[in-house]
Every structure is written in structure tokens, then in C-alpha cells.
Amino acid sequence: MFSGKKYIFVFLLAVISMSSVFGQLGRRDRYPYNYTITIHHNPTERSYLTKDNVTGIADTSVAIVQGHVYDCRNVPLEAAYLIFSGKLDSIMKGCSTDSLGFFQVFLPADIYQVSIKSVLYTTYTIKQTEVKTGEIREMECKLGAYAGISDYIIMSDKKLSEKELEEKKEWYKCRSN
Fold first, then answer.
1. Whole-angstrom distance between the N-terminal and C-terminal Cα of the chain?
2. pLDDT for 26-40, tens place per residue?
3. In this structure, are strands 63-71 and 135-143 parallel, antiparallel, or unpaired?
């Protein structure tokens, strides 16, 4: 014979397991059609140089290049990497930005190509900039965000037409921008 407590426990266990089984069946039956929508996001901002000025002359045998790297919302980019490639002497030197987006590098006089890179942002390249002995050059750059891809899974209780899928794609595209 079952005692009252055991009977209630067995009954509750049966109810819970049955609701779990029927819940899973109901979910699969309710949405038998699954579609994947892929949306390609284009970058809305472009990378560009906002400042490149000689601000002073130092008593050194090298040039000092310093400045800041920001995103297009003026947020400083930490750990952005700058690579200076010399065209005349094949010198290559790099530096990275601190938590305030600030960088500073000491370079011998040369004509440099500068690449500015950061994770999740488009690379910006300055094809040619000349630095001279003793000059202090200030540079600022803004980097635009990379393009991206988003996938959305659409579950439906009915088969969707191409037109309906295109409407859903436009809806998700507008929501994600």
C-alpha cells in the first residue's frame, strides 16, 4: 500500500514527466518550418585621418610622432596598433595605444607608410607621410567599424513565401542598424 506522501509524490512525478513530453511535442508541432535569414551589414563609418600637423621641433636626432586613435563616436581605442614602414631605409616600427587611445613613437627621418589597426575596426592606411629629424608630429585618426554578418532563425507554423521571407529580412535589417 502507498502512504499518502508516496502517492502524492508519484502523482506529481507522473504529471511533471507527462507535461514535459507533451510540451516538447507541442513545440515541435507548433513550428515545423525553420528558416535562416542572413543579413550583411555594411560599415556605416569610414576610417579617416583628422589631424596630421607638425606641432614643434625637439632637440633630438629622431622625430616624435604622437597622437590619438578614436572610433567614429570619439571613443578612444585602446590597443590599436600602428605600423610605420619606412620607404627609404626599409625601417619598420610599431606601437600601440593606451587606454586613452594615445600613442607615441620615435622614428628616424624617412618617408613612412602608416597602417592603423584595431580589432573590429577597418584598417586605415596613410600611403605616404614624411617625418624629419627633430620634428614633433601630432596625428589623430578615427576608425570605422567592420562590416558584419548576422544570422536569424525564423520558426513558423506555416510555409513562408519568398516575399514573406524578404519582408522578415528587411524587418531584421532595420532593427539591427
1. 65
2. 455 578 888 888 877
3. parallel
